[in-house]
Design brief:
Blueprint: H1 3-27, E1 37-43, E2 46-50, E3 66-69, E4 72-79, E5 86-88, E6 95-98, E7 102-106, E8 112-115, E9 121-122, E10 128-129, E11 135-137, E12 148-151, E13 156-160, E14 168-172, E15 175-177, E16 185-188, E17 191-193, E18 202-204, E19 213-216, E20 218-220, H2 226-258
Antiparallel strand pairs: 1-4, 2-3, 5-20, 6-19, 7-8, 7-11, 7-15, 9-10, 12-13, 13-14, 15-18, 16-17
Helix pairs in contact: 1-2
Length: 262
């Protein structure tokens, strides 16, 4: 069987994965805090027919070897954690991170998760939660009688209560960061979980060294660039097409070989 058939087939499978990643990026172009993914590929093993530097029959040294590649594979799909555009909403519970860092939330299963989605809500007990009910960490509760809520750039949350002229501080938002954020595992709901590859979370206050500041009344939008994704989609489609042509050419060559007569 011709090696080209299997090499081209691996190329088609790789481009299918590439298109899957691009499609997911485009589907989340309006998802708050979404981070685009990128598929990385690497070549497979090579069949060595002749080693470079080997001695030829006449005693001379062969300057180049003969290696035939056996295709490609997806080596990884990584998240790109560049900061997305900020959108002003005017909602006092919408918070965006300008710079590095993640919000910390506690999921219903009791696991600590991390997100860039700052579309916060208040539940029936006054606790600050995310859209799916995960409790914001450190846990803070907004008094029911609060007239206004203020979140400063350093994460300090203050509320103005009736009959008071000065705001009352409730606490401070803490951010987390990772040595290798690309190693985080996306679990949906705009949440990430740490892994051994990402390293342990490093926490700190907004505005301190290595951490971004907060902007109240704004949300970080998806960092997906539609033009880039459309260009990548065209490239992936053409690569898929040319690999299918390689399979067709290999098939036609085998057909001609099978039709030979003595």
């Amino acid at each position: 069987m011709m090696r080209g058939l299997w090499s081209a087939a691996s190329g088609m499978a790789a481009q299918q994965t590439n298109i899957d990643v691009i499609a997911n990026n485009l589907a989340n172009v309006n998802t708050t805090g979404f981070k685009a993914s990128r598929a990385d590929f690497q070549d497979l093993l090579y069949q060595t027919v002749q080693v470079a530097g080997a001695t030829a029959s006449d005693g001379s040294q062969v300057p180049t070897g003969i290696q035939v590649g056996l295709g490609t594979r997806c080596a990884g799909i990584q998240k790109i954690f560049s900061v997305g555009d900020l959108k002003q909403t005017g909602n006092p519970l919408d918070v965006a991170i300008e710079g590095d860092g993640f919000f910390q939330v506690m999921t219903s299963s009791g696991a600590m998760a991390y997100t860039r989605d700052g579309a916060l809500k208040v539940d029936g007990t006054g606790r600050i939660v995310t859209n799916d009910g995960s409790v914001f960490q450190p846990e803070l509760a907004i008094p029911a009688e609060a007239v206004s809520i203020s979140i400063s750039q350093d994460g300090t949350i203050s509320v103005l209560l009736p009959d008071q002229s000065e705001p009352q501080q409730l606490g401070q938002i803490q951010l987390a960061k990772f040595l290798n954020p690309a190693g985080l595992t996306a679990v949906g709901h705009n949440l990430f979980l740490p892994t051994a590859a990402s390293g342990e979370a490093i926490t700190g206050s907004p505005g301190t060294t290595g951490f971004g500041t907060l902007m109240q009344g704004s949300l970080e939008m998806s960092n997906v660039r539609i033009i880039d994704e459309m260009v990548n989609l065209i490239i992936a489609q053409r690569a898929y097409e040319v690999n299918s042509k390689a399979i067709q050419a290999s098939d036609e060559m085998l057909q001609m070989a099978n039709s030979l007569r003595r």
